[in-house]
Hints:
Blueprint: E1 8-9, H1 12-15, H2 39-49, E2 55-58, H3 65-72, E3 76-81, H4 84-93, H5 99-113, H6 127-130, H7 133-149, H8 155-172, H9 186-190, H10 199-218, E4 229-233, H11 236-240, E5 248-253, H12 263-273, H13 282-286, H14 309-321, H15 323-346, E6 352-358, E7 361-362, E8 365-366, H16 369-379, E9 383-391, E10 410-417
Helix pairs in contact: 2-3, 4-8, 5-7, 5-8, 7-8, 8-10, 8-12, 14-15, 15-16
Amino acid sequence: MSKLPIPCPIDFRYKMRSKISNSTYSVHGIDKYPAKLIPQAARYLLQEYIPKGSTVLDTFCGTGSVLVEASLSRFNSIGIDLNPLATLFASVKTTIYSETELNEAISKFNNEIRYMKSGDTYNFSNIYTWFTPQVLNDLSRIQKTISLAAKSLSNSQTRFLIASLARIVRECSKADSKGPKPFISKKARCSNKGINVDVLEKFYETASFIKMRLLDYSACFQKRPAPFSTILTGDTRDFLRHEISPTINAIITSPPYINAQDYYRSSKLELRIARLLPEYQMLNFSRSFIGTDRGKMNDVSYVPEAASPELVNLRERLALISKRHAKIVWKYFVNMKEVFHLMSISLKPGSIVCIVVGQNRICGIDIPTHNLLAFLAESEGFKIQEIFVDIIQKRHLPPKRNKHKGIIDRESVLVMSIPAKRI
């Protein structure tokens, strides 16, 4: 491995303060998906490193921070994410809507809901832990009404209504609304959260809020055509194995954190209430995220080619404390090596790749994530050009975790390229 560039501290919020007022401006504020890449970071990387005319790929797009900023900066973009909830919001946020379209969707929903006395029954475990029967019926009525209204609406109008439903699920539940994962706090119990909720009123308020943000975003493209933005749902490795688009020559992405963010648990209520994923797929889905600690770790492959001496030493240190967590960390880097390999064969020589990664602390051990990923990237032919370090502020991550879970207080950015002539 070549000597890495010295990491430089950077404050993306300060750098972009004259262009982006806050991290929830425009459509960025319509969802509460955990650990989102802040738009200031996405805009900075786009403007500083991506050549004009590029098509930008985000291989772990979440709810579309990079895609939105790419469109605003006049780049075409493609986003991939495993989570249907994330790609729902990414699709809505990158669609250009007219006020007439959104008003028609709300009006059609309003005409249908008045005749909908009850919805279809939800069937998942511990359902009444999270919702009262009345709230559950109201949410089901809304979901079934959207399904009926969809027959006379466009796909983009239907996605707008489903996103409005998904946004209110946590707010209507007994779970605390502040944390990334649903849990019922003492404060939520004392305030009887989720007991007396006017679900329909909350839906209309949320749809109105999202509509306002979508129109604000769409207004940016009144005088010029919007770049295209394509959203794909599934494992990014499956898409990278096939040619997504011959025009892709840049990647900006933030891979999942190791063992620190349980995306399934954070989304499980919304996925079920909005019926974004069949119940029989939930178990496999929950175990499919790169970096997850769910499922058995017996299938972890100890591939020597995936390891640097630093990673081997880290695995051995973790194994003394927790063999399971040693396997989780090892599996993460094996999976990321595969991602880098597929990136390298999918991109043209000279392409730029920006990777934003969290720096974890697991079992009391600091994980040098950016160093280890840099080693894997170089082993697949990438050249590391620059490294930045940014302090995390309010990324909708849990403030306290138990001794085995990962605390993330800063992120590193690897800026790398595929040499024009590969060795």
